[in-house]
Amino acid sequence: MHRKLSLYRPMALSSALLLLSGYAAASDSVAYYSDSQNDRVVAFDPVAMSIRAVIPARGSNPYPIGKANDRTSYVSTRDSSSIDVLDNFDVINGAVTKQTMRKIELKHTPRSFAYGPARGIAVVAGNSKPWATLLLPTDPGNSAIQRLFRELTGPYNVDDAADENFGGNTSSGHPLCVQDGLFILLNRTNRTISLFSVNQPGERPLDTIDLADLESGTGIDDPDIRAGSRLSSAHHITRSPKERDKVYFASMEGSFDGSGVLEPGGVLKFKVVGEKLQVIDYQPTRGAVHHLDLTADGDYVLQGTTEGGAGKLYVLDAGADADAPMSVAAVIDAGEGAGHVFFSEVRKLGIVTNHDDDFLSVVDMDPDDDGGIDDPVNWTTTEVWIPRGATYDEFGNVNDPGNIGRDATRAAGQKIQAHTASVSGVDPQEQYYYAVAAADGVFYRIDLENLDRYTDRYADFPWEDMLDAESELGDSYLIQGDYNWNEPGGPMGGMP
Predict the structure, then answer these.
(1) 317 burial class (0-12, 13-18, 19+ CB within 10 angstroms)?
(2) Residues 452-465: pLDDT tens digits?
(3) Reduced to 3 states, what is the DSSP secondary structure of residue 3?
(4) DSSP assigned state of 193
(5) Partners of 463 in beta bridges
(6) β-strands 234-239, 247-252: how paired?
(7) Which residues of 261-283 are buried (b: 16+ CB within 10 A; e: fewer)?
(8) Which residues, including other chains, have CB under 8 Å from residue 459's CB and lie 6 or more apart?
């Protein structure tokens, strides 16, 4: 029987949890994960490996969570025409009340948001409509709606039954604030990338890339775009670390046509030049894609794909300069549902989240340990197994020695691995990688200095590196969130 927690009240740290974690006190760092099936947000202490609080959502179906500033995080409740606003200081200071989570009414359901620190703005992209709301974050619950950006004509909704986009039926992709006062919206319904300004008159974008007809719309003649190809929608954008170039890379997620044939995804390279979008190059991949990442030097694009029913990590050479084309540097085996990729600059590791598999793919980009990133053809990969609902013996049979003890099956559509992960923000050596086994309600960390601890599929996952949150919470589905790292005694914990 599961032990239920009192809502709003911070969790008391049990002696058992403290013994397992090796820490004696709560830190000022917190990881938030949405529990979409129970309409709540679970706050974890990633240093003490403990649960801090459970906060009910004000809206329905919380999914992405993102930090706006030290105090404020937004919770996108995708089935409500509102967005929740979470007071981080309440959680850090152990003062969680009914006022810790408030909401702002919107004219559309929220998909996710992007924060522009230069102006303190937040852009909330629409879920059911490819619209966006501009917010000015102030105190929690008092964020002011500044403006609504909307398309005057439809289609507005993507019909599940007729959905051609691989990444689901949300109308928008993930927005991005690109420069002071400028932001990008990804319209998955109409397959466009549009640039907006907070200062522009009217509601029309400054410039738009038509992904459905890329060659004729941009004037480029790209041999990677086959004749008659209708490129898919864009899901996610990442900016190159080479700031001076103002270069961006978008994951083109892939699509299905009327016969069910997948239009492969890929990566689009483009620039923001003044108030215009300039397409530079397109590089297709095989299979569908989700999110992407770049190495810290901006030289390589890391794109997971669903190729071959399993997964691959495409490593693209980003090009010698801003205007150079991309090329495929290497294709590396990954796990089923390879989606998010996290890059650790300190350790030169690329960590691939295999959403539908039991292991992470940890790619060593510096196998000779000389401190630099080697040629991708020389990178090596380690399969790191994560905790699940059941363990197995050496023959692959279910064996429950008390590690977690739940059945390994999961509800239809649930992911084994959560979308959000992080390496320690309080450890300059980035020793630990933190994530959640989403369908099993297990918060865990991986010691990046000792990967051998996790390479045996049938061995028990180390107790000290996991928190069986579901035994505390009851059934839960912890899918997406945010990490707020802060040194113990730092400013987040010291604010009122």
Answers:
(1) middle
(2) 999 998 788 898 99
(3) coil
(4) E
(5) none
(6) antiparallel
(7) ebbbbbbbbbbbeeeebbbbbbb
(8) 391
Enter the tokens of residue 159. 């019909």
Task: Decide: 41 and 33 in contact? Cβ < 8 Å.
Answer: yes
Round the average pLDDT of the chain to a whole number and report it: 82
Across the range 224-230, mean pLDDT stands at 58
Angle CA 487–489–490, to nearest 5: 55
Q: Name every residue whose Cβ is closer than 8 Å to that of residue 394 and which is 6 or more positions away in sequence.
A: 458
What CA–CA distance (Å, rounded) separates 285 from 308? 12
CB atoms within 10 A of CB 70: 15
Torsion sign across C-alpha atoms 11, 12, 13, 14: negative
The phi, psi pair for 416, rounded to 5°, reads: -70, -40
| Token output for 341 | 């990729």
CA angle 237, 328, 164 (to 5 degrees): 50
Three-state DSSP class for residue 243: helix
In degrees and rounded to multiples of 5, residue 427 shows phi and psi of -115, 110
Residues 173, 209: contact at Cβ < 8 Å?
Answer: no
Which residues are paired to 207 by β-bridges?
195
The reported pTM is: 0.88
pLDDT digits (tens, 9 = 90+) for 8-54: 434 433 333 322 333 335 688 999 999 998 999 999 999 999 999 99
Does the pLDDT value for residue 81 go beyond 90? Answer: yes
Read off φ and ψ for residue 24, nearest 5 degrees. -105, -10
Cα–Cα distance list, 216 to 213, 221, 276, 279, 398 (Å): 6, 9, 17, 12, 56
Beta strands in 274-377 (DSSP E): 276-284, 289-294, 300-305, 311-317, 327-334, 338-344, 349-354, 359-364
- Residues 159/170, Cβ–Cβ less than 8 Å: no
CA of 225: how far to CAs of 171, 281, 291, 300, 342, in Å?
A: 24, 10, 21, 21, 28
Burial of residue 310 (number of CB atoms within 10 Å: 0-12, 13-18, 19+): middle
Cα four-point dihedral sign 257, 221, 305, 78: negative
- Dist CA 295 CA 305 (whole Å): 17
Are 51 and 4 in contact by the 8 Å Cβ rule? The answer is: no
* Rounded-to-integer distance, Cα 76 and Cα 328, Å: 35
Q: What angle do CA 200, 202, 206 make, to 5 degrees?
A: 50
Structure tokens at 382: 């380690």
